[in-house]
Specification:
The chain is of the alpha+beta class. The protein is built from seven helices and eleven strands. The protein has helices spanning about 5-15, 40-45, 125-130, 140-150, 155-160, 170-180, 195-215, and strands at about 25-30, 35, 50-60, 60-65, 70-75, 80-85, 95-100, 105-110, 115-120, 260, 265-270. The strands form three sheets. Strands 2-9-5-4-3 form a five-stranded mixed β-sheet. It has a four-stranded antiparallel β-sheet with strand order 1-7-8-6, with helices on one face. Helix 4 (about 140-150) crosses helix 7 (about 195-215). The radius of gyration is 20 Å and the shape is elongated. The two termini are about 30 Å apart.
């Protein structure tokens, strides 16, 4: 599933591709369930004739601001992919939503597994109001993170994946941050020292920034893997230390990387660097 770096890469691609300022002339919905809100007829009516004034991100959600104050919200989920195409180009498989733009291009949404969802709303808080702080926001400091952790109990991995606790983190960057901080994913938040919390804050932000600099993480080679708006693969896979590196040596100590399941999620650790006797 695209996480903060991947979704931010898509948002940047939409901005660089000139989506801001474009008027939406046509709307085609081929899989009605993709539209979560409102109904498809109202969705089409609410988009046609509107122009895009902003493209942003909140957590793992894309936010397209429209000239009438409404917001088009997109969650890519597992296999969602947005890209531009000439209007005359034949449709490809699994294209569920197509927006025809005034410059003759189309913004197409392909989603093999059909998990992604679109909302057209007047109040974005109805969809994204539950999200926690943005971990890379300049106003979100180590002291803020430490205070949040100090108020919570339970295992670190599920807590960091909880979008109501922090927005945008997923399996990849949580595993990387915990390894870098030397913290076991099953360690309980209430056992962390102040030094542990600040170290995790630092490694979490470092992992996300590496992902952003690499334009995301692409795992595998199929069409369902992450691609930018321009079809480019993210290069962060080469920088991963533990995620999906089961059986490889730990880059810090040489111990074989192990895979376990924490909170029903596949998790990758170095048992020597991330010890915990709990």
């Amino acid at each position: 599933m695209p996480e903060l770096p991947e979704v931010e890469t898509v948002a940047g691609g939409l901005r660089d591709g000139g989506l801001v300022g474009q008027t939406i002339h046509t709307v085609t919905v081929r899989w009605p369930k993709t539209v979560a809100q409102p109904g498809v007829v109202s969705f089409r009516r609410g988009l046609i004739g509107r122009y895009v004034v902003s493209v942003g991100r909140r957590g793992k959600f894309l936010l397209l601001g429209l000239d009438n104050g409404r917001t088009l919200i997109i969650h890519l989920r597992m296999t969602g992919h947005l890209y531009f195409a000439p209007s005359g180009e034949p449709p490809h498989g699994h294209e569920h939503v197509v927006l025809g733009l005034e410059d003759g291009r189309q913004l197409r949404y392909r989603d093999t597994r059909k998990f992604g969802r679109w909302w057209l709303v007047s109040n974005p808080a109805k969809v994204i109001g539950h999200l926690g702080p943005e971990p890379l926001d300049s106003s979100f400091r180590a002291a803020d993170f430490s205070r949040l952790l100090g108020q919570r109990r339970g295992m670190l991995k599920p807590l960091l994946l909880n979008q109501a606790f922090l927005a945008g983190l997923g399996n990849i960057y949580v595993d990387e941050a915990l390894w870098d901080a030397g913290l076991h994913p099953e360690r309980r938040a209430e056992t962390l020292t102040e030094e542990d919390r600040r170290r995790l804050y630092r490694t979490m932000r470092q992992a996300l920034r590496r992902g952003l600099k690499s334009m995301g993480t692409t795992l595998g080679s199929g069409l369902t893997t992450f691609r930018s708006v321009w079809g480019r693969r993210g290069t962060n896979r080469a920088k991963l230390r533990v995620f999906r590196r089961t059986g490889h040596p730990c880059p810090r100590c040489g111990t074989t990387i192990e895979r376990l399941v924490v909170g029903q999620r596949s998790t990758h650790i170095c048992s020597r660097c991330q010890t915990w006797d709990g």
